[in-house]
Amino acid sequence: MTEKEQKLFTLLEDCKKGKRVAQKELFDSYKGRMYAVCLRYAKSREEAEDMMIEGFGKIFASLNSYNYKGSFEGWMHRIMVFTAINTYYANVRHNTTVEIEEYSEENDLKIPESNIEYNVLLELIQELPEQQRLIFNMIAIDDYSAKSVAEDLDMPIGAVKREYSNAAKNMQDKLRKITT
């Protein structure tokens, strides 16, 4: 075990024992990266912060299930993504459903070669309708397959592909407007 792996192992074991100093250290070490994940799925910075806090609660509650195989950060990332999905579904229960438009395979996202700042791209993603934002992030950013997204969201794969296509077309249109 490398020194870095040993340090992480010790930190996680201390977190499992409920040591607040270790929990704060873990939170401080990963909060920026996990907030960035949540921010892509959220409608606002406040919602992203709520998602992140909820996600960290789930992480701390689930530490005993982490088996030290694979990336710990990847394990945390997955929890944050599913926290975002749960937030989406909680919001859907309180809102009307989104219409699913026609699917076109030619709507794959093509980002123009330019120096678009991260914050501008993030704002464009946040402007997408909720379901499109969720599916776009999972496929385009977090590299889930359409099949995996369909299973995770309990949706027909055709609906996932349509929503992704619509999201990609919306992003393409938005990018075209700011780069021309």
Search tags:
180 residues, 8 helices, mainly alpha
Characterize the structure shown:
With 180 residues, the protein is an all-alpha fold. The chain has 8 helices and no strands. The protein starts with a helix and ends with a helix.
Tell me the structural class: mainly alpha
What is the chain-wise order of helices and strands? Answer: HHHHHHHH
Helix content: over 70%
Mean pLDDT score, rounded?
84
Question: Globular, elongated, flat, extended or rod-shaped: what is the shape?
Answer: elongated
Return Rg in Å.
18 Å
Sheet with the most strands, sense and barrel status: none
Pick out the low-confidence regions: 95-114
* Structure annotation, total helices: 8
Kindly report how far apart the N and C termini lie.
52 Å
The count of strands amounts to 0
Strand content: under 5%
